Amino acid sequence: MANAPPAAARATRCAITTDPQALVGYRTNEEWLRLLDEVNGRLAELETALDPAQHAQVLALLQGIDAVHRESLHRLVRLFKEGVVEQVVTDPAIRTLFGMYDLLPPEQPGCAKVWDFIGEKEAPALREGDLPHWSPAPVLQPPAEGEALLCRMEEGTILLAQAGGEFRALDAACPRHGGLMMGGTLRGLSWICPLGPGCVYDLRDGSRLGGGAKLECHPVRLDSGGRVLVGFGMPFDPQRPAF
């Protein structure tokens, strides 16, 4: 037919129709974490490069942008039905954005505001350890499958393990017993606390068998040199099956 669209155009329409939720062009969760790390690093560099007048101008600009975003997002979230926020913040990128603008449910911690990374006049600048960042674990090599280590880091003592084919990093202090879980046992995807019977944590999301306070989980990745890097102050997306 003379008016038929080109084949490429027809194929594009077909793809959109049959797969309307394909995340074309979206970053993976790992790429999102790397983007956060890159932005935080550039902001930290900017802080040292600015003179006082430039610092004040950049801070005023960021606060203005924040005010625009804050007003818009709060108006948008007001229109959500009950339970929608809890659903959408399971996405790491949305959780980061909502955390920046104090829109997370009360039980979920928020994130630093953009200008926190270059300091505010009313408050002291954040320490380096308070910013979202990756820290190398003090291990000579990554733990093998079924192996768990307790690592003393500047941010605290971390349980580092490989279980289910993935690296896991969780806070090593038991919330129930208030002590480090030295001498605990790794069994499958569970960490058995040595401080009391029946105290077992799921390494995938830090939840405690039978309920109670969870262990905080941290993202883990390997750098180009093979070092194990643990993420602090950044979103963690538990990879659990949906059944």
Task: Describe the protein in words.
With 243 residues, the protein is an alpha+beta fold. The protein folds into two domains: 29-130, no CATH class; 133-232, 3-layer Sandwich (Rieske Iron-sulfur Protein), CATH 2.102.10.10. Helix content is 30%, strand content 19%.
Give the helix/strand layout.
Layout: H1 7-18, H2 29-49, H3 52-78, H4 84-88, H5 92-100, E1 133-136, E2 148-153, E3 156-163, E4 166-171, E5 173-174, E6 179-180, E7 185-187, E8 190-192, E9 200-202, E10 217-218, E11 220-222, E12 228-232
Antiparallel strand pairs: 1-12, 2-3, 3-4, 4-10, 5-6, 7-8, 8-9, 11-12
Q: Are there runs of 5+ residues with pLDDT below 50, and where?
A: 4-24, 109-129
Radius of gyration: 22 Å
Q: List the total number of helices.
A: 5
The major pleated sheet works out as: 4 strands, antiparallel
Helix content: 25-40%
Content of β-strand: 15-25%
Q: What's the β-strand tally?
A: 12
Helix-strand category: alpha+beta
Can you tell me the overall shape? globular
Count of discrete structural domains: 2
**Strands in their spatial order, largest beta sheet:** 2-3-4-10
Summed over residues and divided by their number, the pLDDT gives a mean of 75
SSE succession: HHHHHEEEEEEEEEEEE
What is the CA-CA span between the terminal residues?
A: 49 Å
List keywords for this structure.
243 residues, alpha+beta, Rieske Iron-sulfur Protein, 2 domains, four-stranded antiparallel sheet, three-stranded antiparallel sheet, 5 helices, 30% helix
